[in-house]
């Protein structure tokens, strides 16, 4: 296997020391200058890194193409979503062979009616190196659609326009930096959110489409909070939600009276989160506080709900069951719950009576509530998937308990779930906590420690690492890989306490849980340290950086995608996106206890002179979530200190942002590139 010394020397970033002192401690950052993308030297350095990456990866070009072709072969290129009925129209979208983006369509009243193309994103994105279509909202009379898009690949900076659906033309209304939108029932008043210079959604405005300017209706002044606007399914209300990591509140008006002042539903209380789901006869309130971490649901009257004594409990708190999702219908509240790391879906009658529950047979799976956009419906949809079962959409009839399969993900090249084994394992963390992990591999695998393995996780923000069918992952599995998904603390996989136990001053549990899962794979002889690869992105890239510093001996290869890796510098800079709003997740480094704790694990600050695995780091020049300089600085510092001859690469997308390439085929090329790196490093050439 070729090592770093077998290639031309990698780029060396110039050392320009910057000194920072906090709480009497001095940090010297030699690569702080890489922040400035307007500095030609920075762009030259990034281009040199990309050229070096191309040189090292040149021998894998054929393998990349093979993997790309395999993934395309498992994908139905001409495909159409199952239509969804809303306000007299069937809505659906489709992909077409050779086209990067979706086309969004509708038909009036029946699927036999003529097709109306609402948005052909391929035409909109023509000639653009990056394009994100961020969704649309149709006016109550079905005549107009407000929509969000950008040409940068940023996850936070979108343009809002309104399209007249009869003529197909935009009506000359444009907002830059829009975040959310909701129509009033007059079909001419649009509410929308906008961002500040840190990309925080901080204001809600009201715009009459024929008026010269918008009116400010709400401003969120607490920088920990972001604010968004939405309309209710019942078409009765417009809601403004303000939310931080731990606290939320809502304001509302009648959608018939857009000029009214918004009323607060329930005043803001620190560490209390609630959200309101209107029913035509009452409000359902999902409520969470320190004593009810997994959430509970109340019924509240349409008038007088400010008085908490009028509320009735609809679903009690359960310390073992987390409320994940809610959809309100006329006669039922449908719920997605999580128990023991697995999804459950139930329908609870609004007027009381017996719950209807959907049960799932497999040991490891994910089920997601899709609900129904029609308030009067007696059916709802849900998706089901597992590591060896393609994603399938079902419709459940609550009245008769019957389930209909609507659409199953097609794998044109063929796929048999019985060819693969799925297991659930439990690793023991250093503090004795049992951590679940799902694995999949080809049937017939012998546990002799020789199998290449990829372990993946995220572990932050309460986002669970759910199992799902990945058409691309079988390019590794079919080459003998074990694929493992670790459900570590910091996610909500085992309930809200699981999240609490992996944030703030407990953040290191996230890293030690992942290490425990990695060790279990070695101890149970699925793999060995010289065959084990790990992957994570964004906050999961922080995980990669932390475990690589802590246990570099445990991994042969690391892929850190757009990693949040320069924790202290980023969290101390409140002019950056996602900083003050993140204090409730990571801690405020302006307080000494949090500063010291964050400094003790920040991957960039803890790189030392030791042997490291092979590492591929990705970034995006327009990244709004993790700015491009974090992966760039990390690679520069890592190369200057590491004592091994392993390969470290930076792959910087010079056109896009946090999600990498925006077109679906270009995204598959990114995946094939990352998989080719992993395969090459474990010695698999084809």
Q: What is the CA-based Rg, rounded?
A: 25 Å
Mean pLDDT: 96
Sheet with the most strands, sense and barrel status = 8 strands, mixed
Residues in helix, %: 10-25%
Specify the overall morphology: globular
Please mark out the parts with pLDDT under 50 across 5 or more consecutive residues, or reply none: none
Please state how the strands of the largest beta sheet are arranged side by side: 31-32-34-33-35-36-37-38
Tally of extended strands?
38
- Strand residues, percent: 25-35%
Structural class: alpha+beta
N- to C-terminal distance? 14 Å
Continuous helix count: 12
Topology:
Layout: E1 18-22, E2 25-29, H1 40-57, H2 61-73, E3 79-80, E4 84-86, E5 89-95, E6 103-108, E7 116-120, H3 121-124, E8 132-138, E9 144-150, E10 158-164, E11 169-183, E12 189-195, E13 201-208, E14 215-219, E15 226-231, E16 237-243, E17 248-254, E18 263-264, E19 273-278, E20 283-288, E21 296-300, E22 312-315, E23 321-328, E24 332-339, E25 342-349, E26 356-358, E27 366-371, E28 379-386, E29 389-397, E30 402-408, E31 420-428, E32 434-442, E33 453-456, H4 474-477, E34 482-486, H5 496-500, H6 508-523, E35 532-537, H7 539-550, E36 557-561, H8 567-572, H9 583-586, H10 592-601, E37 614-620, H11 629-641, E38 648-653, H12 664-681
Parallel strand pairs: 33-34, 33-35, 35-36, 36-37, 37-38
Antiparallel strand pairs: 1-2, 3-5, 4-5, 5-6, 6-7, 8-9, 9-10, 10-11, 11-12, 12-13, 13-14, 15-16, 16-17, 17-18, 19-20, 20-21, 21-22, 23-24, 24-25, 25-26, 27-28, 28-29, 29-30, 31-32, 32-34
Helix pairs in contact: 2-12, 6-7
